[in-house]
Write a structure and sequence with these properties.
By secondary structure, the chain is an alpha/beta fold. It folds into 2 domains: about 230 residues, Rossmann fold (3-Layer(aba) Sandwich), CATH 3.40.50.1480; about 160 residues, Rossmann fold. The chain contains 17 helices and 16 strands. The strands form 2 sheets. Strands 1-4-3-2-5-6-7-16 form an 8-stranded parallel beta sheet, sandwiched between helices. The longest helix has 24 residues. The N and C termini lie far apart (about 70 Å). The model has no long low-confidence stretch (mean pLDDT about 95).
Length: about 425
């Protein structure tokens, strides 16, 4: 490990990290198969990759797969509270992968680590939240000429990248792994749904049954959170700004109302929007005593924490990952995980079987970027449908599920316009 550059908390955690990485891999059959295939083919031989991702057991298996495919890889954390220190140790010591990530690192150290990863002079970037791409464009522009492309795995990051592309600021192609069907339908819905509830329950140990639980945002993440909260017996409210999504939530059986109304009656409120100050001063001003606030979006800006601080006369930490603010009128507001994404800051993130598909998308997208070097416009690209379909086929096979195939007659019928009513 002495020869592997790194900045991690504790190398002695290696064995614990190794065991958990191996445990996660058992639930990642698609990534295992891709790892075996690409270890033989070496499609990424000598390709320098910098990855700004959540340093978890699942990410470790992605990193190991990329290295097996020939990549020269460096990792840094995409969130100060999502790093699993034992995983970072195992990646450095067991796999000689440079890692710059320490759970609880300051914002200053966070950006130092990003720049350490960029010191690797990557030609491919992997992002959770677009901080790596953003830093390249703002502060490390000397790297732009050598960039082949990048991938982005979060809704928040894709929003940022599309804004850059609209402004003509994006200088290399990025594949929106987040928007692949095998990612957002499953990772965002089932992964975020389960792991967000896991984080809330671990942090508070409060029974959800019978409580009023508000979800701000009814995208795929919000859908998953609402579904799982209802499964726990909570009375679920959905708040939206998109009329179509609000209508869908109402048709799915949830109460739909403005956030200011929900704030008056909610026991729990969680944001999943990718926007700023979704829960703001006016909402805090009317919240019921004891309301629990959590965020499942990528950045810690969805809840206006500075406003909460100013409205409070006291703050203390009654439990790990819970900050209880006492407002000037005596009401208590409980903020989880410092407003950072609760599923990774207060729990372990998505289950491995869901990340199996997300990270299979990552691997195949990186290989696709290499094969299409110089052919893609400087914009945000979808994951090619054929890659998405390949992952679905591999996942079904691993689950032991067979499906029907179209007959030759059916294929002809679907590709023809000549037949109509018989």
């Amino acid at each position: 490990m002495q020869d592997t550059p790194h900045d991690i908390r504790d190398p002695t955690l290696t064995e614990q990290g190794r065991n958990r990485i191996d445990w996660a891999l058992q639930e990642m059959p698609v990534l295992r198969e891709l790892g075996q295939r690409f270890a033989k083919q070496q499609p990424l031989q000598g390709i320098r990759i910098s990855a700004c991702l959540h340093i978890t057991t699942e990410t470790a298996n992605l990193a190991i797969t990329l290295k097996a495919a020939g990549a020269d890889l460096v990792l840094c954390a995409s969130n100060p509270l999502s790093t699993q220190d034992d995983v970072a140790a195992a990646l450095v010591k067991d796999h000689d992968i440079p890692v710059y990530a320490i759970r609880g690192e300051s914002t200053e150290v966070y950006y130092q680590h990003i720049n350490a990863a960029l010191g690797h002079r990557p030609v491919i970037s992997l992002d959770d939240g677009a901080d790596l791409v953003s830093e390249i464009h703002k502060s490390r522009t000397e790297l732009l000429a050598g960039m082949i492309g990048g991938t982005e795995e979060t809704t928040t990051g894709v929003i940022r990248l599309r804004a850059m592309a609209r402004d003509g600021a994006l200088k290399f192609p990025v594949i929106a792994v987040n928007d692949a069907m095998t990612k957002h339908l499953f990772d965002n819905r089932y992964g975020t749904g389960q792991s967000s509830l896991d984080g809330i329950i671990r942090a508070t140990n409060i029974l959800l049954a019978g409580k009023t639980f508000t979800v701000a945002g009814y995208g795929w993440c919000g859908r998953g959170i609402a579904m799982r909260a209802r499964g726990h017996g909570a009375h679920v409210i959905v708040c939206e700004v998109d009329a179509r999504k609000a209508l869908e939530a109402a048709m799915d059986g949830y109460r739909v109302m403005p956030l200011i109304e929900a704030a008056r009656i909610s026991d729990f409120m969680i944001t999943a929007t990718g926007d700023k100050h979704v829960i703001d001063r006016p909402h805090i001003a009317v919240m019921k005593d004891g309301c629990v606030l959590a965020n499942s979006g990528h950045f810690n800006v969805e809840i206006n924490i500075p406003a909460l601080e100013k409205m409070s006369m006291e703050k203390h930490r009654p439990r790990k990952d819970v900050d209880e603010y006492t407002l000037t009128d005596g009401r208590r507001i409980r903020l989880l995980a410092e407003g950072r994404l609760v599923n990774l800051a207060a729990a372990e993130g998505h289950p491995s079987s869901v990340m199996d598909m997300s990270f299979a998308n990552q691997v195949l997208s990186v290989v696709y970027l290499i094969h299409n070097r110089g052919k893609l416009d400087n914009r945000v690209h979808d994951v090619p449908v054929e890659l998405d379909e390949e992952i679905s086929v591999l996942k079904l096979k691993a689950m032991g599920i067979d499906i029907d195939q179209l007959t030759e007659l059916q294929n002809r019928y679907l590709s023809s316009w000549q037949e109509g009513t018989g």
